[in-house]
From TrEMBL:
Domain TonB-dependent receptor-like beta-barrel span(s) in chain numbering: 277-718
Chief place where the protein resides: membrane
GO cellular component, one term: cell outer membrane
Residues in the signal sequence: 1-18
Annotated TonB-dependent receptor plug domain residues: 70-169
Cell compartments where the protein resides: Cell outer membrane
Pfam families: Plug, TonB_dep_Rec_b-barrel
Record family assignment: Belongs to the TonB-dependent receptor family.
InterPro entries, per database record: Beta-barrel_TonB, Beta-barrel_TonB_sf, Plug_dom, Plug_dom_sf
Record flagged with keyword Transcription: no
Biological source species: Caulobacter flavus
Protein name from the UniProt record: TonB-dependent receptor
Assigned keywords, A-Z: Cell outer membrane, Membrane, Receptor, Signal, TonB box
């Protein structure tokens, strides 16, 4: 932990002790627990009566549950911001970004992200808003935190859930009609390091409407992320500096969201209708200047680059679920329809200087590129599930789940516009045309039956099940007229045990076979230029899925009335790994860039230890002081062309530590949290990358006004966190083995503090 973080925490801790002493004679209020029969009132949501801790679930499978009130006092903007505080969640994003969840440090594609227990279509162009990277993983940095009721970390799979969760699953549960009685409004502003201010406003209401209950919510969230980058490029480590690049990167946009849920009794059963919609309007503006050596004067400018990406994305989901007693048990039918539409317009303008000895502008050159991508995803899902009690005290659950995903992609670009200076006229851009493989359609159909037995005997709870997943994929490349088909079937057993040693101590164990399917991006024959940094990417339609056997074993102890501590050990054996690799072909950006692809590349192992603590300090008489600590040690092993290494970009560890001090007599509270994740290393043919992050310190101060108003000031990234990357670049495998460098690059990215002032009022 950095010295500055320790000083900050040490400076605040004595205030907590003094304030606790002043309020020692005031008993903490008991917060009611929301159930389907007793929704909490809006004032109880806005004005938190006590500190919230990790929820303790009674599920047989190992699940960690966190209510929104666990995160809310630090005012997370998105689900990604909230997830930064839970065990084993790492990100490899830019500073101040939290998009692709790396549960247990693994690539985002290993983590199953669910919304209300269901997957949702995403992008795949690498930009976000319910989107994904090139591996088809799900981005969470556009899900507004205001929509969330709770977040569940599911460490091991069960037969009644989709098996594509090698690292585990994260279920983001949105507020439903039984979550709230009354309403509240939220308004505030954020100030960023460049002194720009962005707005946030929203509201939620829930109550009785007709025979059922209705919840509606809406949110408008201004987003901004100004960063500074510096790159230094050498011929080799500790060698001669060839050039340097200074870059500004500003991402500015607005997210709009609405959600609704209606639950009503119908014909002896319960009907639930729900939906949400999220729109993202975002501009990514990157400007850079490259200098010869590290002499940053006009005479040494090599290139000036302007790169803008306009992103417009819409995501939505509609679901209907009906459940009632029938056929000797409980039967539910669920239908869902979800969609994603994304459009990106990218423009890049680069001026090259010093191409010869002739003074500017003679002999200099301008290169201009324009591209456009459109993605249209839809998904229809249907489930029929039945539960019934058996005579010997167990419960039988079985069902059939159907899912059909369709995607249309259109990646187009104009012919490169390049001309030398001086120029009397500027050439016009040509017309957009599809890139190779860029006009394509994908269709994936799944039909997954499952059966599961569960039961309880004394202090022991157990479940065991089988899931049989069938997948059919078809791809049509409209640019070439080619079609590809791929299908596979996987049997996925799972089992979990939970044993109560005492009223406060539990042991559990879980094992499951899981699968990672090749994403549409990995299967697409399109060559995506500059998709991986300056490198291109092309998919392979014949890839097989990965499979993995996993084991989780843990211990959990209840601490007093509200606290909990736990430790978990996990292991995964992964077969037919899906890995990126360098084909050796030269990329579209010229010398030193390559075309990457994906392949099934052998086997690997992943293991680690996860500890979490969430408790008030009641045992030392500090009832109104809550502390939070989670630490995950992560490791893995895989063999590639160069020997043994960890899974690419897996962090060595993830640490979160913090406290909240409540001041009941003053109607106030304050707290701090510190986050740090360890070094991550990645190696493919042609490139090796080591990434490190600085620590992130966040502090909040809250004042409650009466029973209905809360005002909260938060500061995040108070240590000016930086992301540092070192790139070892090689031309051939032989050069990489011999350590004969093509280039060695050091890159540093840094952003400043963000301050938020947020007020909520219940009504």
């Amino acid at each position: 932990m950095k010295k500055t973080a320790l000083l900050a925490l040490c400076a605040i801790a004595p205030l907590a002790l003094a304030a606790q002493a002043a309020a020692a004679d005031v008993a903490p209020a008991d917060a009611p627990i929301a159930t389907a029969d007793a929704p909490v009132t809006a004032s109880e949501v806005v004005v938190q009566a006590q500190i919230a801790y990790r929820n303790r679930t009674e599920e047989t499978a190992p699940v960690l549950e966190y209510g929104l009130d666990y995160f809310q006092r630090f005012e997370p903007l998105t689900a990604g911001d909230a997830l930064k505080r839970v065990p084993s969640v790492a990100f490899l994003s830019d500073v101040l970004e939290s998009d692709g969840v790396r549960l247990r440090g693994l690539d985002p594609a290993y983590t199953q992200i669910l919304i209300n227990g269901e997957k949702i279509p995403g992008a795949g162009s690498g930009s976000g808003a319910f989107g994904a990277g090139a591996d088809g993983s799900f981005f969470v940095d556009r899900i507004p935190a205001e929509l969330i009721e709770r977040i569940e970390i599911v460490r091991s799979a069960s037969a009644n859930r989709s098996g594509d969760a090698v690292a585990g699953a994260i279920n983001i549960v949105l507020r439903d009609a039984y979550a709230l009685d009354g309403g509240f409004v939220r308004a505030g502003a954020m100030m960023f390091d460049d002194k720009r201010i962005r707005e946030t406003v929203g509201g939620v209401w829930g109550g009785q409407v007709g025979p059922g209950r209705l919840l509606v919510g809406a949110n408008i969230q201004g987003r901004r992320n100004p960063k500074q980058k510096l790159s230094l490029r050498y011929d080799e480590p500790n060698g001669t500096l060839d050039n340097s690049e200074v870059q500004t990167d500003v991402r500015n946009g607005t997210d709009y969201s609405v959600n609704a849920s209606y639950q009503v009794p119908v014909a002896g059963g319960d009907l639930e209708l729900a939906g949400f919609f999220v729109r993202t309007d975002r501009l990514q503006d990157e400007d850079s200047i490259e200098y010869a050596k590290d002499i940053r004067t006009s005479a040494n400018i090599q290139t000036i680059n302007n790169n803008d990406v306009q992103i417009d994305q819409d995501s939505w989901s509609l679901t209907g679920k009906y459940k009632r007693e029938m056929l000797g048990g409980r039967t539910s039918v669920k239908l869902g329809y979800a969609g994603f539409k994304g459009k990106e317009d990218e423009f890049e303008d680069e001026i090259e200087y010093l191409r010869d000895a002739i003074p500017f502008p003679d002999g200099d050159r301008i290169t201009r590129d324009k591209s456009r991508s459109k993605i249209d995803d839809t998904e229809f899902s249907a489930k029929v599930e039945h539960e019934r009690d058996l005579s010997f005290g167990a419960e039988l659950e079985f069902g059939l789940q159907y899912e059909k995903k369709e995607r249309d992609t259109l990646f187009t670009e104009v012919p490169r516009n390049r001309y030398n200076l001086p120029a009397t006229t500027v050439p016009a851009f040509g017309a957009y045309a599809p890139i190779a493989g860029g006009d394509a359609s994908f269709e994936q159909t799944r039909l997954d039956p499952y059966v599961m037995l569960s039961g309880k005997s004394g202090a022991l709870k157990w479940e065991a099940g089988l899931r049989y997943e069938t997948t059919d994929v078809s791809i049509e490349d409209r640019t070439s007229g080619d079609t590809y088909d791929n299908d596979y079937k996987e049997l996925l057993p799972s089992a979990s045990l939970r044993y109560n040693l005492t009223d406060t101590d539990q042991l559990y164990a879980a094992t499951a076979r899981t699968v990672r399917r090749p994403s549409f991006e990995y299967l697409s024959p399109a060559t995506l230029e500059a998709e991986l940094g300056d490198n291109d990417f092309v998919g392979v339609p014949t890839l097989k899925p990965e499979t993995a056997w996993g084991l989780d074993v843990g211990y959990e102890r209840r601490l007093g009335r509200s606290g909990v501590a736990g430790v978990n050990v996990f292991y995964r054996k992964v077969n037919d790994l899906l890995e990126l690799y360098n084909t050796g072909a030269e990329g579209s950006e010229g010398d030193g860039t390559f075309v990457y692809s994906a392949r099934n590349a052998g086997d690997g192992k992943v293991w680690g230890v996860e500890f979490d603590l969430s408790t008030p300090l009641t045992f030392v008489g500090l009832d109104n002081t809550g502390v939070f600590l989670n630490y995950s040690w992560l490791d893995s092993d895989i063999d590639d062309e160069f020997g043994s290494r960890k899974f690419n970009s897996q962090s060595d560890y993830v640490l979160n530590v913090g406290f909240i001090q409540d001041l009941p007599t003053w109607g106030a509270s304050f707290g701090a949290t510190y986050r740090k994740q360890g070094e991550a290393y990645s190696r493919v043919v042609g490139e090796e990358v080591t990434t490190t992050y600085g620590g992130d310190l966040e502090i909040f101060v809250e004042k409650r006004i009466g029973k209905d108003i809360t005002v909260r000031l938060t500061g995040s990234n108070l240590l000016d966190a930086s992301k540092k990357e070192s790139f070892n670049k090689f031309t051939t495998i032989e050069d990489q083995v011999d350590r004969s460098f093509d280039e060695y690059e050091l890159e540093r990215e840094q952003a400043g503090p963000v301050f938020q002032l947020i007020a909520r009022m219940a009504f």
